[in-house]
Amino acid sequence: MREIKFKGKAMMTNAELDSMHFIHDNGWFVGNLIQNGNKPWIAGDIVESDPEYIVHDFWVRVNEKSIGQFTGLKDIEQFDKPKELYTGDIVSMHQFLFDGEEVENEIVGVLDYDEEVAAVCLTKMNNKQIQRYMGYGSDENGFKQEKIPVCMFYGLHECSWTYLGNIYENPELLEGESHV
């Protein structure tokens, strides 16, 4: 069964979180997403419950734009503890293509979920090689708008993912033309 969890950036500052003894990763929390109207919260596991109440390990209000769902993918470049990858993460994918001859290729893009195809996809890619290889065009900024399911990349040959940042904290990673 696939693991369903979310990450989000707390609305409180790191100093406020530290003063309340929250365990966090620079203000980021991983857990269960709870929507209370238009106010999203990340809550930890249930530590106690009965028919009248429920107690979570923690709960914290998060910025709606920062929420990402776990994709099941991991950055295996971090051998000691592979980093989990979430929707909204900006990743670099290193792969080898075969187009009459083997071609080493690197693609930078954003992980997203496409409900139409029910798959984790890579979008906003900055690589003209993959656009040509898979027959896609690009927008005026040089980044793809189409979503390509990540499973399609595995069929091309082999690939690995590297975490670069996320669209909430690092939008500058998507600016400009490809340097690949």
From TrEMBL:
Official protein name in the record: YopX protein domain-containing protein
Lineage, broadest ranks: Bacteria, Bacillati, Bacillota, Bacilli, Bacillales
Domain YopX protein: 61-175
Organism: Virgibacillus halodenitrificans
InterPro entries attached to this UniProt entry: YopX-like_C, YopX_protein
